[in-house]
Specification:
380 residues; alpha+beta; 6-stranded antiparallel β-sheet; 5-stranded antiparallel β-sheet; 11 strands; elongated
Length: 380
């Protein structure tokens, strides 16, 4: 399950736009009627400016210009009904309304161009990410797996959240991580880690060796070809390579042992859902994020935790716990998760996805990835 649905939000946006457009025309009609019937010393024509101004905030330049033209026509009708088009007061009101309508139409044009650019950039980023981030299998041996990816709503910046699964002769290996930064650079970094995982996850028998291969992949695409002949921008590229890192969890789940072995490389700890309880799988000693082994201690610690039939393991990236509501409070993942203990992975992630979007008001500041894994009873 890979959720990227925005259709309900789009329908609500279109419905709200139609309501606001109707309100603009209703305002023009109301001001026109009241202004015609009002005493001579009362002039409500300036209120007509609000109609094209409000329309420019949600509609395109054509609709904004049309509403402005209707407002100008309404002001002309008021002028004819009350005095004449050549009346100085009404003439200035009409000229002011025309100028403001032109200005807000121009702003509507700029906003539409910006939105088109953002949509195009987002589609490019999503296409690149869809190639890199393959869907997880629903079943892997005795495991039931579900995944959700939620893209951030800020501009067109896609994050470097990643996940992958690989079957070995004795079990299943899982990877979830988050590359530093946003956009195509983060996606590129994520692709290096995913490529290294897919190549070596089945070959390496030990997790430390696998983590070593993932470590070697981070920032490898940014290394300059000739260090002895620096050119323009070489120093910046070297700095970017030095700052590139990926937080990650690497897990090995044997088919015939009720355990999970994991290496935590600076990533939020997974949550184990068991018999109505939520247990964070905190490691005693976390390894450094991938790409920082030369700066921090390169020690890789593998820890083992029970993972029995009926247990559900929840993996997530920091975009989940760093989502904020209107009061800027972080998303209380453990508290919200308690309401859905006992659900299967697809249902659990469906609840979390909807609740996270509602909590953040539909606008996530960072990409968020969720993976739920349930151990099923072994089949004959």
């Amino acid at each position: 399950m890979d959720a990227r649905r925005r259709d309900p939000a789009s329908r609500l946006s279109r419905r709200g736009g139609r309501l606001l457009l109707g309100a603009s025309f209703a305002l023009i009609a109301a001001v026109t009627v009241v202004d015609i019937l009002a005493p001579p010393e009362v002039h409500l024509g300036p209120f007509l400016i609000a109609a094209p101004a409000v329309t420019a905030s949600f509609a395109g330049p054509r609709m904004t210009a049309f509403v402005g033209a209707v407002a100008v026509l309404a002001q002309s009708v008021v002028a004819i009904a009350r005095t004449s088009l050549t009346d100085l007061n009404h003439t200035y009101q009409i000229i002011a309304l025309i100028l403001i309508s032109v200005i807000v139409t121009f702003f509507a044009y700029l906003r539409e161009q910006h939105e088109n650019k953002v949509t195009q950039l987002r589609s490019i980023a999503q296409a690149a990410q869809s190639v890199v981030l393959r869907p997880l299998p629903h079943r892997a041996g005795p495991l039931h797996i579900a995944s959700v990816y939620l893209a951030a709503e800020e501009e067109a910046q896609m994050g470097g959240d990643l996940y992958a699964a690989a079957r070995t002769a004795s079990g299943t290996r899982l990877l979830i991580g988050d590359a530093r930064g946003k956009g195509l650079d983060a996606i590129s970094e994520a692709s290096l880690v995913l490529g290294a995982f897919r190549v070596t996850a089945r070959r390496e028998s030990e997790l430390p060796a696998l983590v070593g291969h993932l470590e070697a992949g981070v920032g490898s695409a940014e290394e300059p070809e000739d260090l002895s002949a620096p050119g323009p921008g070489t120093g910046e590229a070297a700095d970017d390579a030095a700052e590139a890192f990926v937080t990650a969890l690497v897990l090995d789940i044997p088919d015939r042992e009720p355990v999970v072995r994991l290496v935590n490389c600076g990533h939020p700890p997974p949550l184990l859902l068991r018999r109505g309880q939520i247990v964070p799988l905190d490691t005693a000693e976390a390894s450094p994020p991938l790409g920082l082994a030369d700066v921090l201690s390169p020690a890789v610690t593998v820890e083992t935790f029970p993972f029995e039939v009926g247990d559900v393991l929840l993996l997530y990236t920091d975009g989940v716990v760093e989502a904020r509501d209107r009061s800027r409070a972080f998303y209380p993942l453990t508290e919200r998760l308690a309401a859905w203990i006992g659900e299967d992975p697809p249902t659990l992630l469906g609840h979390l996805r909807d609740d996270l979007r509602a909590y953040a008001g539909g606008h996530l500041g960072d990409d968020a990835a969720l993976v739920a894994v349930e151990r099923l009873a072994p089949q004959p």
